[in-house]
């Protein structure tokens, strides 16, 4: 029976590619790649000669019907993104949903994704957390910040390097400058950096050193204040 494989690829260090991922990419009939030029370098490195087809946010609505037809006809297809696990702030959700709706089997391989190591090495509570991905650029941003300001769980965001300073400055009126955060940059790569501290401390750091590369921001949740215990005796007593 045909199947759609969701295959994570390294977020930086090529040694994070799994043996299983390499085998699947060699065995499938077609690989869907976010950017065939970027993925072409990865496939060449691992000597994978499977044909690639471009599948990205600008064409995924148009290609799904054809891909479902190919899967139903018996082809096995793998979906990869430029880095990390597809469908996590990358194309993949629409095709996965279409497969589920059409009775096509979907299998997601475990593998690299940026937010997990960023959360774990942040030193912030990770028993409960929420993944926000990229915040809205304009419309809806304030509404989202107001909701996040009341969030007690640890929050994970993806931020472009050229927007990091502005984003950290925006944190102050909503989270306060003393809220604990962690900024992870270039995870798994040669120049990996993890900067931890208050919003103000981390903002001061990146004002001196321009941020570069892929960035994950982890924000501590709103502290839970415990209400004082009420006396068992009433004032009249």
Structure summarized in a few sentences:
The chain is an alpha/beta fold.
What does this protein look like?
Helix 2 links the parallel strand 2 and strand 3. Helix 3 runs parallel beside helix 4 and helix 7 runs antiparallel to helix 8. The termini are far apart. The protein folds into two domains: 106 residues, Tetrapyrrole methylase, N-terminal domain (Cobalt-precorrin-4 Transmethylase, domain 1, 3-Layer(aba) Sandwich), CATH 3.40.1010; 106 residues, Tetrapyrrole methylase, C-terminal domain (Methyltransferase, Cobalt-precorrin-4 Transmethylase, Domain 2). Helix content is 33%, strand content 20%. With 237 residues, the protein is an alpha/beta fold. It has a five-stranded parallel sheet with strand order 3-2-4-1-5, with helices on both faces. Strands 6-7-10-8-9 form a five-stranded mixed sheet. It is globular and about 70 Å long.
Counted up, domains total: 2
Query: What is the CATH architecture descriptor of the largest domain?
Result: 3-Layer(aba) Sandwich
Based on secondary structure, the structural category is alpha/beta
CATH topology of the largest domain: Cobalt-precorrin-4 Transmethylase, domain 1
Determine the strand fraction and express it as a percent band. 15-25%
The tally of strands reads 10
Distance N terminus to C terminus?
Answer: 76 Å
Summarize the main sheet: 5 strands, parallel
Q: What number is the mean pLDDT?
A: 93
Order of helices and strands: EHEHEHEHEHEHEHEEHE
